[in-house]
Specification:
Helix content is 82%, strand content 0%. The chain is an all-alpha fold and 273 residues long. The protein has one domain. Helix 2 packs parallel to helix 5, helix 3 runs antiparallel to helix 5 and helix 6 crosses helix 7. The longest helix is centred in the middle third of the chain and has 34 residues. The relative contact order is 0.13. This is ABC transporter permease subunit. Keywords: Membrane, Transmembrane, Transmembrane helix. It comes from Paenibacillus woosongensis.
Amino acid sequence: MTDMLQVAKREIKIGLRNPWAYSFLILFSVFSVSLLLVNSQNTVSGYSAITGSMLSLILYLLPLMTLFLGSFSLTGEKEEGSWQLLSTYPLGTMPFIIGKYVGLSVVLLTIVSFGYGLMGIISVAAGKSFELTTYLLFLAFSCGLVLLFLAVALLIGSLSKNRWQALTFSVMIWFFTVIGWTTILISVLGLLPYLWIKPVLIALTFLNPAELVRLFVVIKLGGGSVLGPEYYEWVTWIHQPGGSLLFLTVCLAWIGISIAGIYWIWERGRSRG
């Protein structure tokens, strides 16, 4: 536990000194205020064309930001020789990985919280209408994207030898999970027998953190009817009293499995020197 906390503190210090972090902080703050301007003439409540557009815009920015900062953190350890030095100390691989994850989570969630906090302050000062439940769901949506994609980012950083590889893999993952997901989904499902479509759709949704979080928030906002009959069961279980807890459990399992894979990659590399 002590080792993990030390790694997390070190990562927070490095993250808060990272020019990339402040660049994304400014970008996300401007982005958040822009969302407020979109809302300036309307009351944002529930799922609508405005909230759908806002979710899409957040979906474009946050995963890419998280993939860059997370993957560069691990590849930086390799390029600068920090990991070779740390591996000579009695520091376990798992405390190192979890410490990295916790430290980066604090940095990224600070960026997100600052952006939403600024948006909330300006909204109150300007007297703009923004329903609290919708506001909190947008915040939960952003935090969920950050935490899930950070696990993916650390996996990319573990597999990459340098920052250029991490950059390439990050853009590729971002493109397939965010930009090209609908086209890929239609192409794959169109080749399958009808009876296979629903189970394959569910499996693919669980593999895509962006789609997983998006579906949950859209349904919570009351937009489940726009998803189609294939997602009827999703709407049912998410609206159940324990639906949010079950979704949180799925996300924690997703992160846990990812960290286990990262641990295996680093431990294998450590044993080989």
